[in-house]
């Protein structure tokens, strides 16, 4: 699968990175059974927690590269720029998903009243 980041890696500035699974999102198709009834296995929630851990990893990588860039230990500042953009995009996506979940929960509560 070709991604924009793998194209950058082909140039030689950054090694291609395998998708972290965060931007792929949780497996919502597997969260419901054949009849559309949600399963009680918790696999959907576990994948969301994995996505949050992935976000934390992206932010940690960005922070480490930022420290290296400031101290002069980083040979290529583009690595930090890419890591920072990835972390920012992942955080924005996480906030958007959280906001939609809160909106859906609020709507469900409103329908019950």
From TrEMBL:
<keyword id="KW-0975">Bacterial flagellum</keyword>
<dbReference type="GO" id="GO:0003774">
    <property type="term" value="F:cytoskeletal motor activity"/>
</dbReference>
<comment type="similarity">
    <text>Belongs to the FliE family.</text>
</comment>
<dbReference type="GO" id="GO:0005198">
    <property type="term" value="F:structural molecule activity"/>
</dbReference>
<keyword id="KW-0969">Cilium</keyword>
<keyword id="KW-0282">Flagellum</keyword>
<dbReference type="Pfam" id="PF02049">
    <property type="entry name" value="FliE"/>
</dbReference>
<dbReference type="InterPro" id="IPR001624">
    <property type="entry name" value="FliE"/>
</dbReference>
<keyword id="KW-0966">Cell projection</keyword>
<dbReference type="GO" id="GO:0009425">
    <property type="term" value="C:bacterial-type flagellum basal body"/>
</dbReference>
<protein>
    <recommendedName>
        <fullName>Flagellar hook-basal body complex protein FliE</fullName>
    </recommendedName>
</protein>
<dbReference type="GO" id="GO:0071973">
    <property type="term" value="P:bacterial-type flagellum-dependent cell motility"/>
</dbReference>
């Amino acid at each position: 699968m070709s991604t924009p980041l793998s194209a950058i890696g082909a140039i030689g500035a950054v090694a291609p990175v395998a998708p972290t699974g965060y931007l792929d999102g949780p497996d919502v198709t597997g969260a419901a059974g054949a009849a559309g009834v949600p399963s009680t296995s918790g696999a959907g929630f576990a994948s969301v927690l994995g996505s949050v851990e992935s976000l934390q990893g992206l932010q940690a990588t960005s922070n480490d590269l930022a420290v290296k860039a400031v101290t002069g230990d980083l040979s290529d500042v583009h690595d930090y720029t890419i890591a920072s953009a990835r972390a920012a995009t992942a955080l924005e996506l996480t906030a958007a998903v959280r906001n939609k979940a809160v909106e859906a929960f609020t709507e469900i509560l409103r329908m019950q009243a």
